[in-house]
Specification:
The two termini are 25 Å apart. The protein is α/β, with parallel strands linked by helices. It is built from ten helices and twelve strands. It is 30% helix and 21% strand.
Length: 308
């Protein structure tokens, strides 16, 4: 695992995006992983360790989360910026190898370019969906983890409520309790897996206490983005509408769904099977929002799809 930094330009200046790389840096296949609303790149450690046996894996911290910068102008948070940052990361991930004999040999092959697959959980899935819908998108295969073309208002309100815990924690025991309660929808995890999530959910303060590793200002920016269609009037209760983007996607798509998910209703998932890229659907029972991508069957489903 290698830690890297990318400088990205937003509306009000530069900010640093942190990401982790796994596997062979010269691999021609690149898998980019993007996390959920308040999560970070370390959520993908279990998946990345497996996929890195075959491919290069890049896991990013979206702005305001993990080890990436918190933005000075909080109004900049939103899907417009997240897409711009992700596009910069894709440009770096697909750039030709620059050093050594392999770099020289690759330059002799015309038209050789790296292909990119995208694995996105919840918010990270929305970023991937929007990018895959763009003309000329470099995304070859798309995996959406428990997010779809419609996100109900009730689920958005619930997630926003989960973001309101900003007081520091006295110790890691308190952090672990909070993480297990807040992310119970991830499904049945081992004690070691819960401790992994807890350890990487916080930053340690100078006084020894722990603070959640995301900017509290994110709560106000939950629905920011010109690409997010928010219907007016009675239709507002249906939440965010991404169908026009979904119908524009041509990349083969795998849709993962927690059997008890409120973010990806079953009727929405079924409609997605017949529209746009006509996704494949895999459901995991006993899981809510969202599958942790730590369980063997979840990892295996992604690996099979990407290898197809």
């Amino acid at each position: 695992m290698r830690h890297e930094i990318l400088h990205c330009l937003g509306p009000n200046g530069f900010h640093r995006i942190s990401y982790l790389e796994w596997g062979n840096p010269h691999a021609e296949r690149v898998v980019v992983c993007a996390h959920g609303l308040t999560r970070n790149a370390r959520d993908f450690d279990f998946l990345a360790r497996r996929l890195a046996r075959r491919w290069r894996v890049v896991c990013l911290d979206v702005a305001g989360r993990g080890r990436s910068d918190w933005l000075a102008n909080k109004a900049d948070y939103g899907f417009d910026l997240y897409q711009s940052d992700a596009a910069a990361l894709l440009a770096r991930a697909t750039a030709p190898v620059r050093r050594g004999l392999l770099a020289w040999l690759l330059r002799l092959l015309p038209g050789r370019a790296r292909s990119v697959d995208w694995v996105g959980t919840s918010m990270g899935g929305i970023i991937g969906l929007l990018l895959a819908a763009r003309a000329g998108s470099p995304i070859r295969r798309l995996v959406l983890n428990d997010v779809g073309a419609t996100i109900p208002w009730s689920a958005l309100a619930r997630m926003k409520g989960l973001m309101r815990r900003h007081e520091p924690f006295a110790d890691m025991r308190a952090v672990l309790s909070h993480v297990r309660e807040t992310y119970a929808g991830f499904g049945p995890l081992s004690g070691a897996q819960w401790r992994h999530l807890a350890r990487h959910s916080v930053k340690r303060l100078k006084d020894g206490r722990y603070q959640l590793a995301y900017d509290p200002a994110l709560e106000a920016s939950l629905w920011n983005g010109s690409d997010l269609d928010m219907p007016l009037g009675p239709a507002l209760v249906r939440g965010i509408n991404l169908w026009r983007h979904w119908d524009a996607i041509r990349a083969p798509t795998l849709l993962l769904r927690g059997g008890d998910s409120d973010v990806l209703p079953l009727d929405v998932a079924r409609e997605m099977l017949g529209r746009g890229p006509k996704a494949q659907l895999v459901e995991f029972q006993g899981v809510g929002h969202a599958p942790s991508l730590m369980a063997y069957d979840q990892i295996a489903a992604i690996e099979r799809f990407l290898a197809a």
